[in-house]
Amino acid sequence: MTQSRIAQKLFRLITDNAVPIIFIIISAVAIPLSGFSATYLVQELLTRIGRNSFLILSLLIPIMAGMGLNFGMVLGAMAGQIGLIFISDWAIVGIHGIVLAMIIGTPISVALGLLCGNVLNRAKGQEMVTSYILGFFINGIYQLVVLYLMGGIIPITDPILVLSRGYGIRNSINLLGVRTVLDRLFPVRIDSFTLGAFHVENISIPVATYLVIAAFCFFIIWFRRTKLGQDMRALGQDMAIADSAGIPVNRTRVIAIVISTVLACYGQIIYLQNMGTLSTYSSHDQVGMFSIAALLVGGASVSRAGIGNVFLGVILFHLMFIVAPAAGKELIGEAQIGEFFRVFVSYGIIALSLVLHAWKRHNERIRARRALRIPAAGAAASKEGTQ
Amino acid sequence: MRTLLRTVALCFFALLSVLLFYFGREHQVFIDNNTIEVEGDRFRALRLVRVTVNDAKPMELMQRERDLVKVVGPSFRFKVEVMDQFGENVEKVIEKELRPGFAKNLMLSLPLIASDRDDYILPPPVYVPPPPSTREAAAKDEEGLVPQENEEVR
Questions:
Q1: How many angstroms from the chain centroid is the CA of residue A264?
Q2: pLDDT band at residue B154, thresholds of 50, 70 and 90?
């Protein structure tokens, strides 16, 4: 009896954390194969955690409100990019440029978030696919604005930014003025330390970026305890009951999406300041997919995600990014194979996670139905006994 | 009350934006050592001159040379040291502080500065992008964005 219970618990633990377990196993195999030093891996991971965590954290609030994974975060990313285009044109550099880009991006992302939230309220139950398609729709409008209106109707005067035909923004913008400014705001360098069996040397830590991420984490923890946060959690558990309890369902859902979109805007600015280059027409494309994949890799699901999932996810997902091409090269002789493998695994993991989630929900429903049946059957039996 | 708070917040962010714009603006300062003619007077290019902008590394310019420095913020200091023909002794030192304010680019004429004139700020050189007709001249990053010759636009 005890053994079967332990086996059951073990099975449950494995099914609950199947995705991170798979990634840990793959990484454990790929790291030694890649031949990278511990210093390189730690430095790369520290950089990538700083670069991506904010974006991934922006996904938590819609999940809390039961709206699933917000593929509409690309809307916020586009707003952030518009802010960066403007500061590049005005030549605002340093931390001033980053803050100004955020201020410019905020109203745009609020407007886009309102639009997205209202559309999703009309597509309850299909939020993920709706927000995904909405991303494509807004991408079209973004391209219209950036490719045709900027430089023409919207004044962009810097000839380095504008296409030679006189309007439209070039394919790539060099963000030299704001490159890594947040990362270098309070630079901390560690000469050497030992991490278990590994010796790590000469590591730089982007402290300011980590402080911003930490502030965001505290914001989420605080937000969960507020009235609005509690409303969102109630919505996430059961929308009908929340509605009966007097929670303004539609309004709360719109607020969740607006917050997520605005934070995604800031996240994209932090991401791009670290990269140092803005691909005007493609930087935002993959942001949603990669952030969602990282969150799922961290063990989150469509209906449940926490701050821990974000950091575990970003570490495991980006560890794969770093080691997979090198491991592929060592194994087969071609780095591209490793890259194919990584892409295949990354997208496969989204599919696997969604399937596991659907399967778990199906099992839970069966269990709940059974639980209802047993007391009913018991009551019927006891009734027969008394007669 | 809510409207008031919103208005205050809006004003705060508008003010913050202006301040960020003012203090974070990068100015491209062209330092020009070419002969220039102003109001009929000809000011010859200096043989050798050393220019220091803010606390940056000094740069030396020969006749007919032009250099570029980037400064951030509403004002900057610069020091012009006019050297003798051998480049060993400093003949004249001029120190000034300039407030470009919201202006983006500007050009300083060294011969005018050395002549103690106040109209030493010149309009910056204009960047002329390649004309749309010369497709070869278009930057590589425009590929796919600008329709090519004989390409049908749908």
A1: 9
A2: very low
Collapse the DSSP code of A135 into the 3-class scheme (helix H, G, I; strand E, B; otherwise coil) and give the result. Answer: helix
DSSP 8-state assignment for residue A169? B
pLDDT at B151: 46
Q: Are A96 and B24 a contacting pair at CB < 8 A?
A: yes
ipTM of the complex: 0.82
Domain limits, chain B: 26-143
Under DSSP, is residue A263 helix (H, G, I), strand (E, B) or coil? helix
In which band, very low, low, confident or very high, does the pLDDT at B138 lie, cut at 50, 70 and 90?
low
d(CA B65, CA B51): 12
> Which residues in A162-197 are b (16+ Cβ under 10 Å) and which e?
bbbbeebbbbbbebebbbbbbbebeeeeeeeeeeee
Q: What number does CATH give the domain B26-143?
A: 2.60.40
Mapped onto helix, strand or coil, the DSSP state of residue A251 is helix
B125 CB neighbours in chain A (<8 A) are: none
**pLDDT value at position B20?**
95
By Cβ distance, the residue of B25, B27, B129 closest to A164 is B129
pTM here is: 0.86
Contacts of B129 in chain A (CB under 8 A): 159, 162, 164, 166
